[in-house]
From TrEMBL:
SUPFAM superfamilies linked: Metallo-dependent phosphatases (SSF56300)
Source superkingdom: Bacteria
Chain ranges of the Calcineurin-like phosphoesterase domain: 18-211
InterPro entries named among the record's database cross-references: Ap4A_hydrolase, Calcineurin-like_PHP, Metallo-depent_PP-like
Protein name as annotated: Metallophosphatase
PANTHER family hit by this protein: BIS(5'-NUCLEOSYL)-TETRAPHOSPHATASE PRPE [ASYMMETRICAL], METALLOPHOSPHOESTERASE
A molecular function (GO) term: phosphatase activity
GO cellular component: cytoplasm
Native source organism of the sequence: Mycolicibacterium hodleri
Length: 330
């Protein structure tokens, strides 16, 4: 990142630095915080900026090599008031994995697949320290509305937020008991948390289309929804279809019909006038207009733990996303 006098001056003003999925990349995080002008404060011991606050989009843990160090840095900042954070699906899953189910087992089953995905965390964050951080994860807000900007891990969707507020009384869990409903397929709270933390999906088979097979050969009936596209109202524009997707016969998957879907499914498209920042989607390369960012949405997850970049967006009051406010892009 160029450290010109101009760019330093521009970010002396108040604002928020929205930081993407860290996934245990402590070295990348300390380098990024330093380049953004956050310094370890002698009394709090936390990274602080004289005029700005950091906002983390969640997914501090899993996969990466230094998860405990990341947790200490970020929780230290949150406790010192120099950062805020929303819950990612990996924090949600960590709590569910650790919470016994009333039916026996755990709220997130200890299957081979789930355990393998979570093993690095279990190895690196152990004992009382793990319990302490899981308690912290439990009560992280699922979204933040900071006035001029909004932050959520995967998708800003007001109908889902209303469900969460109705069931939990606010934008966060207050106890692990509430994770029982949040992990019960079919429960409105489960569906709402799925949308906010993992992003909405659309059922292609339910719309009369054939399933697709992804690049790993997994057959799927549901596609991700391009909720960041405010124009998307049809199956073709809403469903995110990879160019490598195949039919069951191994043919390239055909173009979906350009037919309007029902209102509930159209409701995912973000049409608010306040910028939304999100992570989750493992984007690659430099931020591309139209997908990674639009006028009012900006993804900050550029796959730091998969040899991408730990990206931040420096928001300073603008109503429209500016490409040049992304920093540390690959
Ligand atoms: Mn992530």
């Amino acid at each position: 990142m160029p450290a010109s006098a101009e760019s330093t001056a521009r970010f002396d003003e108040k604002g928020y630095d929205v930081i993407g999925d860290v996934h245990g990349c402590a070295t990348e995080l300390t380098v990024l915080l330093d380049s953004l002008g956050y310094r370890v404060h002698p009394s709090s011991g936390a990274h602080e900026h004289p005029t700005r606050q950091a906002v983390f989009v969640g997914d501090l843990v899993d996969r990466g090599p230094a998860q405990l160090q990341v947790l200490r840095i970020v929780k230290g900042m949150v406790d010192a008031g120099s950062a805020q954070i929303v819950m990612g699906n990996h924090e949600f899953n960590a709590v569910a994995y650790d919470t016994p189910s009333p039916d026996g087992g755990f709220l997130r089953a200890h299957t081979k697949k789930n355990s393998r995905q979570h093993q690095a965390f279990l190895d690196q964050v152990d004992g009382d320290i793990r319990a302490e951080f899981l308690d912290w994860f439990t009560t992280l807000p699922l979204w933040l509305d900071l006035g001029g900007l909004r932050v959520v891990h995967a998708c800003w969707h007001e109908p889902s937020m209303r469900v969460v507020e109705e069931v939990l009384g606010s934008n966060r869990f207050t106890s692990r008991d509430q994770f029982v409903r949040a992990t019960a397929k079919g429960d409105p709270l489960y569906e709402a948390v799925e949308v906010l933390l993992k992003g909405p999906e659309i059922d292609l088979v339910g719309h009369g289309q054939q399933p697709y097979f992804d690049k790993d050969g997994h057959g799927r009936s549901r596609a991700r929804v391009a909720w960041w596209d405010d124009d998307a109202t049809t199956l073709r524009t809403l469903a995110v279809m990879g160019t490598t997707f195949k039919t069951v016969d191994g043919e390239p998957y055909p173009l979906l019909p350009d037919a309007e879907v029902e209102a509930g499914e159209q409701s995912y498209s973000y049409r608010g006038d306040v910028p939304v920042f999100y992570g989750h989607y493992w984007r690659e390369g430099r931020p591309q207009r139209g997908v990674d960012f639009t006028e009012r949405t900006a993804c900050v997850d550029f796959s730091a733990v998969k040899s991408g970049a730990l990206v931040a967006y420096r928001w300073s009051g603008e109503r429209e996303i500016r490409e040049d406010h992304y920093v540390n892009v690959g």
